[in-house]
Input
Amino acid sequence: MNNDTTVASNFIRNIIDDDLAANKNDGRVVTRFPPEPNGYLHIGHAKSICLNFGIAAQYNGKCNLRFDDTNPVKENEEFVNAIKDDVTWLGFEWDGLKHASDYFDELYNFAVELIKKDKAYVDSSTADEVREMRGTLKEPGKPSPYRDRSIEENLELFARMKAGEFDDGAHILRAKIDMASGNINLRDPTLYRIRKVHHVRTGNDWSIYPMYDYTHCLSDAMEGITHSLCTLEFEDHRPLYDWVLDVLKTPAHPQQIEFARLMLEYTILSKRRLIQLVEENHVDGWDDPRMPTITGMRRRGFTATSLKDFCERIGITKNDAWIEMAVLETCIREDLNEHSPRRMAVLEPIKVVITDLADDYTETLSFANHPQKEDFGRRDVVFSKEIMIDRDDFSEDPPPKYQRLVPGGEVRLRGSYVIKCCDVIKNDAGDIIELRCTHDAATLGKKPEGRKVKGVIHWVSASAGVQATVRVYDRLFKEPHPGSAESLEAELNPDALIVHKTAYVEASLREAQPEERFQFERLGYFVADRYDHSADKPVFNRTVSLRDTWAR
Ligand code: ATP
Ligand code: MG
Output
């Protein structure tokens, strides 16, 4: 595990320090990351992963990966495998690989114990009746007519629920706590419901499944978790967490501590909403590079290092706050600037013919792979009579201070010669199809004599370069705080993906391996697509632009 970064302190680490000083839990620190396998992990989960695994590493403790698989209707094996891949890719190793379903027998026995202690009962009200009797924030709830069933009757009914004698919804098992509690979670919460569905791991063994709140605290206790870290929405559930463990007198009583969820501007971090994006085809699946999923961000070109750096920088607090996208983008830019070799690519090519060169002219130039790092070595780049430049780098009607190519003007080709545009060739429709230029042979690595040429543009040889598809990704939403409207469509950024199908990249990129990252000079940081890229059909994804283009 990565121990070499200095960890910033936070209120959770302070609590653990105090616990260790008091020799609580015999000095052990055990955490867990408990995803429900009902979707792919997103960058919010990365915050929780970095916290839980990071704390285990810092205190020589342990961290389990536990699948909270108590809702077989929504969960599946694809999600389980994807979650394991994501945690591994981030660079973490779990100590125990657990499933809440491992504990179904124990959880059942604990429920029987609660019934025997007169702390749980079978309620045969309908779901609507239960809802109505729950009361509101202002009004207390009403006790169910089944609340005073005898222990014997409850034991018998619960056993028959388990045996599959009843249909879904016929009965539930509820804790017997306090229907007048100011905390609605304590108004006799449901512990078990009947669900006659197949479970990936336990098959058709069970007709009843335990609820999250009941399962979570007991799973934590059985695994000897010392600090159960979760997000703020569970703060109101903590009294229930503690009630279950207190009533059952479990040997271990983990401490639940809540922290703020990650909220990241221009994105949505709720599995329900992400499922909606996938199912309504707003994106091409969970690993679409526009998605804030870990697998999507990986495919987009984010590094595990940059995500961990981000999680460290945003810190852990008790206050909900939107994090600016610029924080994430800075993390990835810093990492990629340091580690990516430079290349040239042209996204929307216009052909430039250098008329004063022979038809078969080629020249091999040597380019540094990184401006500051000699150990990145050098590569050959072929210059030829016909080259491609980007459409944006030529203008017939230039705005003020335009320093690129204009009719009659000069510009330097990066690492090569100064050229001058002599002629603009158009088709019948008036579209530019070719620029005719001359070159100044005395300007290779030298300033031109007697005049200043300010602009430098990138280029790719038309004959030696390779055609490629380049996908330019941007923020998925145009709204900084999306998700409040029921329709996601109105908030989506229509320019979140622009595909350049006829891009040109320099020949050395033929050898790029899937997931290899580069800076395309002047354009941004790019990665060879994890799935679609091949030497014959290169495909690159833009991870991030070189600068923040959204800053006001
Ligand atoms: P969602 O609301 O997106 O479905 P969830 O909380 O239901 O998320 P789980 O699979 O239950 O998803 O989450 C596993 C762990 O990750 C939990 O401990 C949860 O608190 C944490 N987590 C989920 N989303 C975030 C987030 N945005 N920021 C920090 N932690 C998160
Ligand atoms: Mg959840």
